[in-house]
Amino acid sequence: MNSKKAIAILITIGCPLLLALFKNNEFNIPIPYVIIGIVVLTLLSLVHKPSTAQLYKEGLSEEEKTVEEVKASQKPPVLYLRSFQADRDIETRFVGNSIQVEETYEYTLTKYFEPIGPLVTLLNKKTTYIGGAKIDNTEENWQEVFHSYAKESTYLIWSWGLSESVLWELKQLLSNEYRHKLIIFFPVEGIPVEVRESYWSNTLGALKQMDVNIDSLPNTIGNSMFIIFPEGRSGEPIDSTPSLLEIIASVGACDLLAISLRRLTDTLGYDVEKGLDSGSKLAVLLLAIGATFIFMMIMFNSANPIWFYLSTVEIFAYGSLLWCLVLISYNWYTTRQYKLRWLKSGIQTSTSIN
C-alpha cells in the first residue's frame, strides 16, 4: 500500500478518536474542537491529494495497451490523430477541483471507444502520457504508417490543429476513401466559443490554401464537440451539453467510496459503462444525505437525546469530518464517468456507435 495513502487512512480513522480523547481528558482542559477538526482535515487533504493522484496515474498506466496487444485483438482499431504541440497543453487534468492528475482527452476517448476497438495513435517521443496504444514512427515513414492504420481502422478521430502534418492528415481524411469513418473532435472545457470559431475559421482558411475541397465542412461549430460524416456525406456538428446532474458530478472532490463502489459493481457483475447515470445519481445522493445529516445534528442538538452529550462545537467538528469523508469518496468515479457520458451522448445520438 502507498505510504501516503496509509497515513491518510490513519488520519481519517484517528480524527474522531482524537476528538473523543480530548473530550474526556482527566484534566478537564477546554479544547478548541473546531480548530482540531480543521487542522486534521487540512492534514488529511494535504496527504490525500498527492497519494490519490499517484494511485490514479498508476491505475491508468496499467490499463494502457501496446500495439502488439492491439494487433492480437479481434477488433479493428480506432485511429486518433492530433497535433503533437497540444500534448503538453492537455496533459494536466483535475480529479475534482483540487487533485491534479495526468489525464488527457486521448485517455477519455480510449475508454469510450474501448467497446468498439482499441484506440491507437502516433507516438510522440518528446512527451510521455497515458492514452491509446502508441505507434512507433519516424519522420520519413509517418505518412505510410497513417495510411496503413487508417485503412484498417473502424473510426478516424481527428482533433484540431494548425500544424502542417495535422492539416495534411485532415486533407487525407476528407477524401472519399476515409470520410465515412471521420469524426472531428473539439475539446470543449475552458475554450470560449469565440476562440473555437476563430480557430475553426483559421483551419478552413489553411485547408483552402492547400487546395482542399471544404464543401463538406460546416462554416461554424458553436459548442459542438464533434463533427460526423454520416455515410461520407457533409459534416454535421453535434452539440453535447451536460445536464445539471453531470455538471454537479464533474466538480466533486472525492475518491475512496467511489473506488469501493466500482469494485462492488464489478464483483456483482454490474456493467459500469452502462450505468454511468446511476453512478452519478448515487454520488449526488450521498452528498445530499451527508448535508442533511449535518443539518439535523446542528438543529436538533438540544432536543434529540442522541446528541445529548455533544456540544455544538463538537457536532460541528464531527459533521465537518463526515462531510469531508463524503466528498473524498465522490471524486474519482463521478468526474471520470461524467466525461465519458458527455462524450457518449454527443456521438451516440447521431451515429451507429453502440
UniProtKB/TrEMBL annotation:
Keyword flag Membrane: yes
Keywords, comma-separated and alphabetical: Membrane, Transmembrane, Transmembrane helix
Annotated transmembrane regions: 30-47, 282-300, 306-333
Protein's recorded name: Uncharacterized protein
Keyword Transmembrane helix found: yes
